[in-house]
Design brief:
- This protein is about 35% helix and about 20% strand.
- β9 and β10 (about 330-335) form a beta hairpin.
- It contains nine helices and eleven strands.
- The protein has helices spanning about 95-105, 130-145, 155-170, 175-180, 240-250, 255-275, 280-295, 300-310, 335-350; strands at about 5, 25-40, 50-65, 75-80, 115-120, 185-190, 190-195, 225-230, 320, 330-335, 355-360.
- By secondary structure, the protein is α+β, with helices and mostly antiparallel strands.
- Strands 1, 2, 3, 4, 5, 6 and 7 form a seven-stranded mixed sheet that branches.
- The chain has two domains: about 5-190, Ribosomal Protein S5, domain 2 (2-Layer Sandwich), CATH 3.30.230; about 195-360, GHMP kinase, C-terminal domain (Alpha-Beta Plaits, 2-Layer Sandwich), CATH 3.30.70.
- α5 (about 240-250) crosses α6.
- It is found in: Cytoplasm.
- One of its GO terms (molecular function) is mevalonate kinase activity.
- Its EC number is 2.7.1.36.
Length: about 375
């Protein structure tokens, strides 16, 4: 599936003040995690998907030029390392190796690029938070920075997507774009756009607001929505989940049409809810999307328990997020106080880690 990212941010691979191309010793690239709000799995079959960046889960890649032109098994080496950790082979090394070959072809550096790339990744692996795409994007930007190349958005996307297809098999492209986005984005059929958000305090109160129900807050929803992500403690299985759905859709063609159609309706409606700060309605779309994913076999008992815990703690809506069969869930909170209550409820229910993510726009990781 070809993709044309339509974005409002810029890849900054040649910041002012750097040495001339060919003389840099180190290049740096950055990216971050992401979470799917609605549309996972259906997006592979043409449905839209709504994703949110997770800025606190950052990835930094540093590419250091390696002197000498002697033969070696790999002209570019990759290693993962965090603070105080011993460098290890990245789990997505096959994808990165494919990316390396295509990067050399795109930039005309075949045979002339020798570098060691060290990746510091805070995105947990196997949790549906975009770790493979974020690492790939950081590597692309680090190598480009090392060479003094400016890569346009499409080239960056295509290089990251090449790595993603090796890492996960069939990849929609949403991860490859979302790990560099600055605000929630809508992705469909190879195109993406970042979404505007209402100003604080704007938006029409939902009819259920303030009635004492789960979605009630007693005040206009505005743009103070937050997303709480919880790690179930069990790695997801994206490839297995994709194959599970493929086989089911082949056996039951009507199931695929109904699933994709319903998810599409929910996602488009959620975009309007987000634009107007209708958190009660937005939450209801999340929970309904979770029901669809659970019925089609993507959720787990542990994820379902976390979803119920979030709703019991006052979240307007919650669902599994990502490839499924483990991984993470995501819950909406209509304010900081509600977010803390949801976090507490999720931890009591067994979440091993939680993150609170703003619904609004934030500065690009490369700025």
């Amino acid at each position: 599936m070809a993709a044309t990212p339509q974005r409002t941010f810029t890849d900054r691979t040649d910041p002012a003040g750097e040495p001339a191309a060919g003389h840099r010793r180190t290049g740096v690239g950055r990216a971050h995690g992401k979470a799917i709000l609605l549309g996972e799995h259906a997006v592979v079959y043409g449905a839209p998907a709504l994703a949110v960046p997770v800025p606190q889960l950052a990835v930094t890649a540093r590419a250091t030029r390696r002197p000498g032109a002697g033969d070696s098994a790999h002209k570019v080496t990759f290693a993962m390392a965090g603070p105080g950790a011993t460098p290890t082979v990245p789990p997505y090394s096959d994808g990165l190796r494919s990316l390396e070959a295509q990067f050399e072809e795109r930039t005309g550096t075949a045979g002339g690029l020798r570098a060691d790339v060290l990746i510091d990744c805070a995105v947990p692996q196997g949790r549906g938070l975009g770790s493979s795409a974020a690492c790939a994007r950081a590597v692309v930007l680090a190598l480009a920075d090392l060479l003094g190349h400016r890569l346009d958005a499409r080239t960056v996307f295509e290089l990251v997507q090449a790595s993603e297809k090796v890492a996960h098999g069939r990849a929609s492209g949403v991860d490859a774009i979302a790990v560099g986005a600055t605000s929630p984005l809508l992705f469909r059929s190879g195109t993406a756009r970042e979404l505007p958000l209402p100003a604080p305090g704007n938006g029409s109160p939902h009819p259920r607001e303030g009635t004492g129900g789960r979605a009630g807050t007693g005040r206009p929803p505005g743009s103070d929505g937050l997303f709480v992500i919880a790690d179930s403690g069990v790695s997801g299985a994206t490839r297995e989940a994709v194959e599970l759905l493929r086989r089911r859709f082949e056996r039951e063609p009507g199931t695929r049409e109904a699933f994709v159609g319903r998810v599409s309706d929910l996602t488009y409606a959620a975009v309007q809810d987000l634009a107007h700060g209708r958190w009660g309605d937005f939450g209801a779309r999340l929970t309904e999307n979770h029901r669809l994913l659970r019925e089609i076999g993507i959720s787990t008992d542990r994820i379902d328990a976390l979803v119920e815990a979030a709703l019991a703690a006052g979240s307007p809506g919650a669902k599994i997020s990502g490839g499924g069969l483990g991984g993470c869930m995501i819950a909406l909170a209509d304010g900081p106080g509600r977010a803390e209550a949801v976090v507490s409820g999720l931890r009591e229910a067994g979440a091993v880690r939680t993150w609170i993510v703003p619904a609004g726009r934030y500065a690009h990781h490369a700025d």
